[in-house]
């Protein structure tokens, strides 16, 4: 498992709504040049619910082929249907993924026992590292620290991406899995350094789509022991991290990437492009920080 920065990649679309593969290639090149430690394809930021199975497969294959083993590539395979999550995870392994990111089942609002059995089913079906993903604001279910602790009994569960925003809960999760095979990753740019200060191994980032080298520098400053630099960078770029949620993710980050000429800002319905008012706010924030 990696320590450091993983990018939760966007999926670029053109004006006709098709996947923009030249832009995807440009984005992946930027990530590799920016020094990220892992890529996460088809997570929440990648908009997989609006993509066909054929599109998802082609995007995954394109990224894996381009990365060519330089850094790990994780594929989002979570579902509210456990059997489907298992199927997607097995398919990711067959395509050559280095690991999978499995969000907790959404909408169903399962029990903590259901969460454990869901991850056990994925664990028993593949021979890849699994990163469990807790983001209750989007899924409607919160994976409690004691449940994450239970996951330490599953050999392939090697990480947990925590995006609950609850620092007290994250600290308790860190305490319970400390010394186990499970690495703790922040799922929020805006609290990356605080989570690393309580035992986190890094960040799975939205903002690093746009500024990979900057976010990588911040994360590795902490891991290398330069805590003052890491904290200074966290404070400096906090306005940009906050701007990534002017509207629902990934609308703002795709707009930021468009402003940097990496891709177009287009989304697929029901997601919409960033409003003019919020685009102006984002552009001002980027200019203030010399990102633009």
| Shape, principal axes of CA atoms | globular
Q: Quote the beta fraction.
A: 5-15%
Level of helix content? 40-55%
What's the alpha carbon Rg, rounded to whole Å? Answer: 18 Å
Task: Please describe what this structure looks like.
The chain is α/β, with parallel strands linked by helices. It has a single domain, classed as Alpha-Beta Barrel (TIM Barrel), CATH 3.20.20.70. 46% of the residues lie in helices and 13% in strands. The chain is built from 13 helices and 8 strands. The protein has an 8-stranded parallel barrel with strand order 1-2-3-4-5-6-7-8, surrounded by 5 helices. Helix 3 links the parallel strand 3 and strand 4 (99-103). The model has no long low-confidence stretch (mean pLDDT 97).
Please supply descriptive tags for the structure shown above.
eight-stranded parallel barrel, TIM Barrel, alpha/beta, 292 residues, 13 helices, 8 strands
In short, what is this structure?
The chain has 292 residues and is an alpha/beta fold.
